[in-house]
Specification:
globular, 17 helices, 6-stranded mixed beta sheet, binds S-adenosyl-L-homocysteine, 29 strands, 5 domains, S-adenosyl-L-methionine, 4pyrrol_Mease, 30% helix
């Protein structure tokens, strides 16, 4: 079931009042208003289709105040892809109709009923089982897992056809439902954590009520867990989490096993043996040992977040140049799981919107090392932290600062943080792609900023790179505090390149108001460039030709020297 905060998307001013009423049902939800059409929304978006698809791909439930058809057409291209399936609803702009469209297993009907209650109308529920029984049997609450969706659908059809049902085991959420219950019924809903082959007339639901205590010393932890559960006749589907001693918090084995089994990994204080570990993790439950591991089986689903603590995570992410389509999916997933977001305010804003439970720590651009240390302190305390950079985090950005902070530290808690660097499309590559392929052969990337290195080394590198006939990509080409450096850099390059050498200037690439200009080294002057510009200078082989749309293609051929024949 989806737990995340929905987004309310509106297209016109007339919908704002209804959107505010829906917001009373979901106080954390933000209203996204179309730029130029809506005044006073919480967030402004530029393109409806892009925004809706992005929210969908981020698994954010969507409440769109517009015609159902528009929503369907917009999301249609994504529906065949495997992946996120959040709840999607269309609501009439005057609040008179609430139509659940997608995400039956994401709790869309529950949302439709809640919104409809808030608007004092009736939700347009079309799911027969749900209409008849007042609950979707195929969508048990979190903490429970349906054994088999297809079997479940058949089971619900049987009930719709008039069969009665009895409930075995604890299913508190079904007390409210209007199921045709009969203690003598042939059909049964069975809720339990034991290994069981469902009978044809049985709907199996597993409570996630089992924790397995593991140790990094075991080989193939995931298989050992499966074997121990099997030996103890406990269903794998009931596994809620793995637990281990906090002395093993940095173990890659355990991390991989948890990933493979698709369950969280929690850490508790080390104990004399593995049975004691399971007991310490889930006090007051029955513990059995099997296959060298200890299994704690509770009566009810486990509250995993209250068991021990998680291993903290720190991801240094690259947003790409700006446009959401140029952000890698791993970064999107990381943004969704983060508890804390650190970075220069502009980039944090670019990475959003964030949920209310995600803490934003915005800082000044210059405080890199402080920010890196702050990130480790949070992650070492078990938080899931992201440090945001634009473009790629390894290119004149936060990844190196984060690693330097770690290298300087001898705090074992910092070193056991789950640290990962997630790449992004760097500004030079995004700019090059729009211009054609100016970096199609060997090239050299430089920052012209002398804040962190002496100007003399920049001059030396420029001179040698230009002499070596590398195409050049300049980051941080100029700023108010560094007004003369670019002019000096261009003089050095001009010693080795003809004035006709193609130059590409990309400004705010992938962001609103982006501009791309093609010029030549002879015509380039520093006043055409600012700190939001990427400067690409061709090599001796870089050439240009007219595009059909009147613009210019720039490319550097793959060969060098004599053009190969054929
Ligand atoms: N990590 C970033 C670069 C940070 S240095 C990356 O990989 O892209 C900052 C410089 O990058 C700016 O001064 C500018 O030269 C360039 N830059 C960053 N984003 C840009 C964009 N969207 N368009 C053009 N240049 C950009």
């Amino acid at each position: 079931m989806t737990q995340s905060t929905p987004a309310i998307v509106i297209l016109g001013q007339a919908s704002l009042a209804t959107a505010r009423r829906i917001q009373q049902v979901y106080p954390a939800a933000q209203i996204h208003g179309l730029a130029g059409r809506v005044e006073g929304a919480d967030l402004v978006y530029q393109a409806f289709g892009e925004t809706l698809r992005e929210l969908y791909q981020q698994d954010t439930p969507i409440i769109a105040l517009c015609a159902a058809g528009i929503v369907i057409r917009t999301l249609a291209p994504l529906l065949l892809e495997k992946g996120a399936e959040p709840a999607v609803l269309a609501v009439a702009e005057d609040g008179s109709a609430v139509v659940p469209l997608l995400g039956g297993l994401g709790g869309v009907n529950v949302m439709a009923r809640d919104i409809a209650a808030g608007l004092q109308v009736t939700a347009a529920i079309t799911t027969s089982g749900e209409l008849r029984f007042g609950t979707c049997l195929l969508n048990p609450p979190s903490g429970y897992a349906l054994a088999d969706l297809e079997a479940g659908k058949r089971f619900v059809s049987d009930l719709l056809a008039g069969h009665s049902v009895r409930i075995e085991g604890a299913a508190p959420w079904l007390d409210q439902a209007q199921l045709p219950q009969d203690p003598q019924a042939q059909r049964a809903i069975h809720v339990g954590s034991g290994v069981r082959v469902a009978r044809a007339d049985e709907l199996l639901i597993y409570p996630r009520s089992v924790a397995v205590a593991v140790s990094a010393a075991v080989d193939d932890v995931a298989n050992a867990v499966r074997a121990s559960l099997q030996q103890a006749k406990v269903a794998l589907q009931s596994l809620a989490c793995l637990v281990a001693a906090d002395s093993e918090i940095a173990s890659a084995n355990l991390r991989e096993a948890a990933l493979e089994l698709g369950v969280p990994l929690r850490f508790v204080a080390a104990q004399p043996d593995i049975e004691a570990l399971a007991r310490a993790a889930v006090p007051g439950t029955a513990v059995v040992t099997a296959n060298g591991l200890a299994i704690a089986v509770a009566e009810q689903p486990l509250q995993v977040s209250s068991i021990g603590r998680p291993r903290g995570r720190l991801a240094v992410i690259g947003l790409g140049p700006g446009a959401a389509e140029l952000m890698v999916p791993a970064v999107k997933a990381e943004l969704a799981r983060a508890t804390d977001v650190l970075g220069y305010e502009t980039y944090v804003r670019m990475a959003g919107p964030f949920r209310d439970d995600q803490v934003q720590h915005c800082t000044d651009n210059r405080e890199e090392m402080q920010r890196a240390r702050h990130a480790f302190r949070l992650a070492a305390a078990g938080r899931s932290v992201i440090v945001v950079s634009s473009g790629d985090p390894g290119v004149f950005a936060m990844a190196a600062a984060v690693l330097e902070a770690l290298h300087e530290s001898n705090d074992p808690a910092w070193h056991s943080v789950d640290l990962e660097i997630l790449p992004g499309v760097s500004a030079s590559l995004a700019t090059a792609a729009q211009a054609g392929a100016p970096l199609g052969h060997d090239f050299c990337v430089m920052s012209l900023s002398d804040n962190l290195k002496p100007w003399s080394i920049i001059e030396k590198r420029l001179d040698l790179a230009a002499e070596a006939d590398l195409a050049l990509a300049f980051y941080n080409p100029i700023s108010r505090a560094r007004p003369w450096q670019l002019g000096r850099a261009l003089e050095i390059v001009a010693r080795h390149r003809v004035p006709q050498t193609p130059v590409v200037l990309g400004r705010d690439i992938g962001r609103p108001g982006q501009t791309l200009r093609t010029t030549t080294l002879g015509e380039l002057t520093p006043d055409q460039v600012d700190m939001r510009t990427m400067v690409l200078i061709g090599s001796s082989t870089t050439c240009t030709f007219a595009r059909a749309d009147g613009k210019t293609w720039v490319y550097t051929p793959r060969w060098y020297g004599e053009k190969p024949v054929g």
